[in-house]
Amino acid sequence: MKPGIHPPYRPVVFRDKAAGFAFLTRSTAVGEKTSDGRTVEWEDGVTYPVIDVEISSASHPFYTGTARVLDTAGRVERFERRYGRGGERG
User: pTM of the full predicted structure?
Assistant: First the structure.
């Protein structure tokens, strides 16, 4: 790799405040994401920069198993019962 052109790759804590979940990983995220100086002391006693995220695997419906399946057939049937078929009024 060409020296001096890549951002620093360092440990960063990503925190999902909605789920109360955080994980330590490595990232090149710098600048506006971590420039406000927010840090957190991790379980190993070391202080790392922290990035707050709105959603993670701990709160995303797909990963938590709370994803809803749309019942489009049921919606069509309910519409037809309510308004009739083929524009009939009833």
Answer: 0.59
